[in-house]
Amino acid sequence: MGGKRPRSFYFLAAFFTAYVLFLYGPMFAIYILSFQGPDGGLTFPMNGVSLVWFGKVFSGSGIVDIGASFKRSLQLGLVVMLLTVVLSVSAGLAFRRSFRGASFLFYVAIASLIMPSIITSLGIALEFRLLDDFIIKSGATSWTTAMGLFTSGLGAHLTWTLPFGLLIMFAIFNRFDGRLEEAARDLGATPWQTFRHVVLPIILPSVVGIGLFGFTLSWDELARSSQTIGSVNTLPLDLQGLTTTVTKPDIYALGTLTSAVSFLVIFVALVVILVLQARQRRHGSDAGKGMV
Amino acid sequence: MASPSSPSLRLAPSMKQHRKTFVAWLQAAPMMLVFALFFLLPLLFVTVVSAWDYNEYEMIPAFSLRGYSDTFEGCIAELPSLCTILKTYLNTLKLCLLTWALTLLIGFTVAYFLAFHVRSKTWQIVLTLLCTIPFWTSNVIRMIAWIPLLGRNGLVNRGLEGVGLIRQPLEWLLFSEFSVVLALVHLFTFFMVVPIFNSMIRIDKRLIEASYDAGATGWQTLLNVIIPLAKPGIVIGSIFVITIVMGDFVTIGVMGGQQIASAGKIIEARLNALQFPAAAANAVILLGVTILIISALTRVVDIRKEL
Amino acid sequence: SADPKVLRYLGTAVNEGDEISKKCLEDTGIKIEYITATTDDVTKRVITQPNSFDVLDTEYFSLKKLVPSGNIFALDAKKIKEFDNITPVFTKGQLPNGKKIGDQGTAPWKVLYLEGPNSKTFSKTPTEFVTLIPTVYNADTLGIRPDLIKRPISSWTELLNSEFKGKASILNIPSIGIMDAAMVVEATGQHTYTDKGNMTKAEIDLTMKIMTEAKKAGQFRAFWKDFNESVNLMASGETVIQSMWSPAVTKVRSMGIPCIFQPLKEGYRSWASGFCVSKAVSGPKLDWAYEFVNWYLSGWAGAYLNRQGYYSAVLSTAKANMTADEWGYWMEGKAAVSDIKAPDGTVLEKAGAKRDGGSYDDRMGAVACWNAVMDENDYMVRKWNEFIAA
Amino acid sequence: MTTTAALELVQLTKKYGGVTAVDAINLKIPAGSYCCLLGPSGCGKTSTLRMVAGHESVTSGDILVGPKNVTDLPPADRSTAMMFQSYALFPHLSVIDNVGFALKMKGVAKTARHAEARKLLDLVDMQAYAARLPGQLSGGQQQRVALARALITSPQILLLDEPLSALDPFLRLRMRAELKKLQRELGMTFIHVTHGQDEAMALADIVVLMNGGRIEQQGSPREIFNHPRTEFTARFIGGHNVIAVGAETFAVRVDRLALKTPSETVTGPSTAGTISEVEYQGTYVRVVIAIDGGSEISAQITETQFDTASYAVGERVLATWDPAQASLLNTTGSAIVRSPEKAA
Amino acid sequence: MTTTAALELVQLTKKYGGVTAVDAINLKIPAGSYCCLLGPSGCGKTSTLRMVAGHESVTSGDILVGPKNVTDLPPADRSTAMMFQSYALFPHLSVIDNVGFALKMKGVAKTARHAEARKLLDLVDMQAYAARLPGQLSGGQQQRVALARALITSPQILLLDEPLSALDPFLRLRMRAELKKLQRELGMTFIHVTHGQDEAMALADIVVLMNGGRIEQQGSPREIFNHPRTEFTARFIGGHNVIAVGAETFAVRVDRLALKTPSETVTGPSTAGTISEVEYQGTYVRVVIAIDGGSEISAQITETQFDTASYAVGERVLATWDPAQASLLNTTGSAIVRSPEKAA
Lengths: 292, 307, 390, 344, 344
Ligand SMILES: Nc1ncnc2c1ncn2[C@@H]1O[C@H](COP(=O)(O)OP(=O)(O)OP(=O)(O)O)[C@@H](O)[C@H]1O
Ligand SMILES: Nc1ncnc2c1ncn2[C@@H]1O[C@H](COP(=O)(O)OP(=O)(O)OP(=O)(O)O)[C@@H](O)[C@H]1O
Ligand SMILES: [Mg+2]
Ligand SMILES: [Mg+2]
Hints:
Chain B: InterPro entries: MetI-like, MetI-like_sf. Chain B: The chain crosses the membrane at residues 97-118, 125-147, 178-197, 276-297. Chain B: It is a multi-pass membrane protein. The complex is a heteropentamer, with one copy of chain A, one copy of chain B, one copy of chain C and two copies of chain D. Chain A has eleven helices and no strands. By secondary structure, chain A is mostly helical. By secondary structure, chain C is an alpha/beta fold. Helix content of chain C is 35%, strand content 18%. Chain C is built from 15 helices and 17 strands. In chain D, helix 2 crosses helix 3 and helix 3 (110-123) packs across helix 4 (139-152). In chain D, a hairpin with a 2-residue loop joins strand 4 (60-65) and strand 5. The longest helix of chain D has 18 residues, at 169-186. In chain D, 27% of the residues lie in helices and 31% in strands. Chain D has nine helices and 18 strands. The A-D interface holds A 1-4, 6, 175, 281-287, 289-292 and D 16-19, 50, 54-60, 72, 74-75, 91, 341, 344. The site of one magnesium ion (MG) has 4 residues of chain D, from helix 1.
């Protein structure tokens, strides 16, 4: 017994399923079309069925080195993720007390969200150009540019992910029970210990969520990167660059592979977690599993 | 014993306040720094450039409000019919409102399901990841995939024809306001789900029990307890969706078959024509308009109040 | 061995190719690093990040925008070995056989030369300071789906024919799109332009008015922005008639879908692209850049381009790298003797096929105008935005 | 008028994972009666209440409200209302809106429900705080608001989980009287969890004494106080000494214990020991005696008696009682305290 | 060894917006003494404790721990530890980790701190629950964990906010004894908020009675019980009837009140009334008498007396007392209950 579900559960579960199907809608077209025959295009009809496009992804042939840009995007995404989490949590903590400039920072974050990415991108590019000129003028003749994946590119991505991180922190800290922190301080915890041992563990799942969000935003970011990335492209930029010429279903194969690997990783993780939980079942409890 | 209440021993309350504020300030500083370097400074350049003059080929570093005045060209002369910029903003607002309403509805429901019906944290995480995976395939690719899905000969039309629901393929499925809103909803619903979900899991389950106990129906509980308590999440999600849609041009461009105007699209067209001052002026206008909307929103619900 | 000779090559994917960079490395020891971006992004990057590339692959009409930025290096014509062999289409505005071709718009020869090494002014007469070394060019027209249209098409007027309501498309790059529109307007006889590539405000208004009416009537299915979109629109049957690029037609056809790059009686809109060098390049890198350009014109690459349906700038060297059959099919309008293959070996056309539009002379000779940036560009962009908002 | 209903629990069981919180209890509470649930911390009182209210799923067994089996019904369909041990006040609503919440749900107009809510706030002495938010109240004030909120619903069965624990005795007495009055007037069935036997004694028609998830004894207050059946009951209900004499164990009320000096002669049963503690309790003095066997008993004597005898810690005494006033205890049966699973 | 410190509050005031919760109180608590804070709900006990602990900013006034003015110091620098009225257990930590938290912060190794924590869990009878999460505990169990967690720190001053309110009397008595023992052994200064006078009487060296943000009376338990100075004290401390005789008001202990039939003759002061309620209280019977003037008094009589006289509701009686055992009250001064700002 224990798990009697109310009717609304089934309705909502159906709704959620529908949402997921909707979310995956275009992905289904991608999954199917990635098996196009060698002469197939990006649209229906299917022109035979084959695995050639997967082969293309692995062989790395093509104008741009998708593998390399994939790696770059991954690296950038991970750094962005880390910084987004750290800076957002830190600023989120700051906002729980009031400090001078809180409103300013808040509106700057909002503005950064609003500003069309291409404009921000352009502004950053201009800024770095001025910087380069300045450096060259001050004598470094062999200097090429300060622009790059982890300078201007990183900055541009952060202006995109940080507002999200900060605002989600607001949701996380909303009605966070301050008495827990009081209790910790009372028990002799330093502010850092209070954060490390009380606040962080409680908000951790949400913070991981911010990281994931930050990574996804960076991974998919296009417009802000376009003028700030320097001489090497991120994956989306390369993919977009490819659309200016004959595009083949290998990009679909890339999408299918990404999904497949993600599914696999998540599935394995889930199995591991469930097994671990089953082992701990002895302390388990169905606490709070009320009728509501 | 030291003289107990000698005022010299006391720290001025303002000083104590200062110390606390200083720590908070330090915590916020890294983020402030990133914004200062990569947003405010560029924004400054953009604003300066927006007040520059320009000709067909290049920008001229001399003060001129041409970028602005050109933008509003005909707004007075053409009355009562609307000038381009107003028409465009109206259209953008319409798309924005539609998208907002839909993402809110769907996002709230999904978040509600995840927060209140999915009982274990593990499953919450798994389902959240399930919703994230599509985003790991680049949007460039996903956008292309709408054509085989919604196009004249796409999966949907084929399916409907196959079932016998329609004879002629539905043209409005693609390159229409419908498809724009569809794609926007598709992309941004998750931006609603995340903050709403986060504020929902903070709601003490006993409050919901108490509400049912007071004879409230499910709907009443939703309206009177869950929504008020999830309000900050709702507002944050709304900020995400509204700000992004207001500035969007990629999705509107691709899904609207490049035929639908939006505030972002004007800026893009100007930029691609390398008319930076005009583009910058338009961006400043967009920034102003959207900040107004957002500050109105945060006036209704102060999301920073209950931190 | 010395440091690897690396050149950062910024451009759209259109002219980039794995084979080209491999061959180049093999022949010259120069390693090409492609930076691929969309047309718009390429131009913006030149303005905003001149330090992020060495060699730029761009179109002539962009020069009107790029040169004033001061980020383009004036190349020394004397250091280009084949400069004098470049087809007179670029240098004189005529075919090799001496026939004058259309000069409306930003024709290459109008922006080919600068007045001095650091000048930002184009010279009307040849100088030794060259802005952009031509590599590729072509004549664009409408692509059609003969299987869905089922009748001959011979004029630009068909683009706005209500028969194709909801199935037509043009390019949404204002400066190019308006020229396609102008071709239509002129074809319908509503107006004759002095220079379609440099309209007056009144002409812009007129053109946009006609287009706006068509748009409101639902003539267009969508506008396209990049190569890929144009292929998808056509291949999926979303559109049956639209402005198009030659390789896009080839692509649709290679998917087994009938598609014709339809020659029209009013002629073609032409474009040409080539290499610029960034002003930030100096020292040995500059030498490599010259070396690279020289290699590019030396024939192998030209043949490679010709085989895709483009035209190469130095015909003689390209010809030396192609078979007679290929040369006959692509350049002389002759029926193919054996199967025609793309550079990657896939069969493009069966033996016996003839190229749409015929020979080089027929096609380039029928060019009516060139892609352009107008003097009234700013006004035109505003009107284009209005058109989109309508 | 409020309707009322009898409550019946049949073999009701609640397990949390491996922990049995409520263990197959059977209980019948007649309609309109006041039932007090008493028992040591962790014995399953809250769990029982939460199951009755429908906030906790039932592991096995049935709950009947009146003739209806509500075991699987949602809380709203059970005609019960609950006051939570942890209050569960709505943080976003003012005090008056918290109290008026149930009426709002019924669609009562604002003025009417505010008027009604004010009446209840008056009852719990919280009128003046109507506009405050719960976060701005003291612990006791929050408890009173929670009480008012539960009372406004007039359900068939009202479940109160330690409704008065955070109140000062002054207020507690008043609230107690109000609760009893309300119950009498409205005729509702009340189930009231409390830790105070005095509270249970004063209010209850039926006292249910729980221990380790089981019902140890139930009956009228006087019955339980005068006839504890087990050692646990005797000890828990308080005011009793459990004294083993030979194989038998007796419960003797502390105020029935007389202290004599070892030299005095005693008739009837007695036990000798040393005074280990003297506690001044206001109206009486509690004297704790360490019996020679090792256990402790206590005697409650009046201040006057104490002052006359002036017992001191360490002094030896003899405790005696009247056998007619002692209860013989059932020594088999329930254990005093059940341990949960051992910590892993 | 733990060190201890005296606590001194000087004109300590706390205002929440317009509400004065603590109103310029002055208090000296000698090092090593056990102080009980008593007072009606909302009188400012928690606020005072929170200010001492440093969780609430001081509006004005000073707090001295030993010789040090700690008013503006952060909580960690105050040598105080607090047990929260709302427990504030860390939801993500097991019971044993909650209790051992303070030691972990000090860098004590895991085995050592678990051993120490286990000792304290033993003390509060929660050993068996060591591995549970707080969410899996009953109310009283949570309270005991909170108590154990506060005790582990051995601070100079320990602040306990209603540490025993959710416990059954059985356990409460035991905990009370443990607290007293601990305080004696460690010599710490304890400040213990409670609602039970019995608790205060049993534990405290000093009882501080608060009312409406002020200190109403302070002193040793016996002093306060036998010599209430105000009507509020007399009423609050319980066991007293406040009876006005002419212009003077007296406090008379309920167990000092004798009931006579109206026909009997009385020497000394007396007042007549009607029996309005009879409450059976276990060891005694409480008889409530509505005095003719309108107020109510109550008399506590033994069961035997009650059974002999068998008073019934509605009967008229005469209440008398020995004037030597009554306290004359200071009728000016503090109001009984202060209202907060009127609801807006
Ligand atoms: N945050 C707040 N804002 C406004 N008023 C408050 C706030 N916190 C407490 N108060 C008020 O201050 C007064 C004192 O509160 P406090 O919590 O100190 O009472 P207490 O003596 O602990 O009461 P209890 O015994 O009910 O816990 C109360 O009247 C309360 O309503
Ligand atoms: N969610 C849970 N998971 C596991 N065990 C639980 C849970 N909730 C309660 N328990 C256990 O069930 C038993 C009964 O708990 P319950 O809350 O009913 O006690 P209670 O009688 O209300 O106690 P108290 O007087 O302390 O509030 C306790 O031993 C408790 O530890
Ligand atoms: Mg309980
Ligand atoms: Mg309190």
